[in-house]
Write a structure and sequence with these properties.
Elements lengths: L1 H12 L9 H18 L14 H15 L1 H11 L5 H10 L3 H30 L1 H5 L8 H7 L4 H7 L1
Helix pairs in contact: 1-2, 3-6
């Protein structure tokens, strides 16, 4: 399915003749979509030219550079500050610090956290509703999370394996 979407998107881009196509961008979008569909049963991207990327995709791309931007903070201050108070307290302190790069990283992490919770809650809700809801999802219940969630845990066979 993703390969057809990708082919259609690139084909539409070059329908008027040869043009330069940013394949790195398209391959990145397609890779995230394949992982989302096969692993999580979730669609991150419709792979349509001109549509905005999913915020998660943008966050993943910005994560590494943002981590590098706060490297000194992470190496010298974070080990000490990470031991003070609760995570809620530390987050409130971060809000008070006028450090643009740290706020950008916090926003990236918030988007990734929100998306993961949406996926998880969607899966939980689908399993509560039953097989029809699971089949209506992106991978029709054939994604890794759905398969693992449906398989019974057989403790006796696990013990025997070790």
């Amino acid at each position: 399915m993703v390969n057809v979407q990708l082919h259609t998107a690139i084909e539409k881009h070059v329908v008027d003749g040869p043009k330069e196509v940013d394949m790195l961008q398209w391959m990145g979008r397609a890779a995230l979509e394949m992982i989302g569909q096969s692993g999580l049963g979730y669609s991150f991207d419709t792979l349509v030219e001109g549509e905005a990327e999913h915020p998660y995709n943008t966050s993943v791309k910005q994560l590494t550079s943002s981590l590098l931007d706060v490297q000194l903070f992470r190496e010298f201050l974070l080990p000490t500050l990470g031991k003070i108070g609760t995570s809620k307290f530390r987050r409130a302190c971060l809000e008070l610090i006028p450090y643009k790069d740290a706020h950008k990283l916090k926003d990236i992490i918030d988007i990734m956290d929100k998306t993961s919770h949406e996926i998880y809650e969607g899966k939980k809700e689908a399993f509560k509703k039953g097989d029809e809801a699971i089949q209506a999802q992106v991978a029709h219940g054939n994604d890794i999370i759905s398969i693992l969630s449906q398989s019974p845990c057989q403790k006796s066979s696990i013990k025997g394996a070790y």
